[in-house]
Amino acid sequence: MFHFRFETLLTARRHAEECLQKELAEARRALVDEQSALKDKKSSRRQCLQEQRRKQRQGFRGPDMLLYQTYLQRLEHDIDVQQKRVASAERKAAQKRQTLIEAVKKRKILEKLKEKDQESHRRALAEAERKFIDEIAARNYSSARSI
Hints:
Elements: H1 7-58, H2 62-146
């Protein structure tokens, strides 16, 4: 029966790969959340600008426009902060993806080694079986000649 000498290591690498897949999924989910928040902030800015333009066409008061400007400045700041958070989440997801790729490569190396060892084991068994059959055939032949 074949027993791979690095089976424990292969199992550990598979488990580590699964953990990294979960981490990558979480990082991607966080990225989607950050992108969604950025989209919402940009949408709020767009709506505020439309509202401000509508008020300007209708005739506006100075204090109202000052409120709009203050709010828009705050939204711009929030958008800048959110863009940085999106970029950070993108970097984190890319890093997790790269780590996962490396883990997959390490696992595949061990799996290829296991396949080679299995093939070598099969060849050794086949060779031993062939030798055994040859020996039996030689015994049968020599006992048949001696009769």
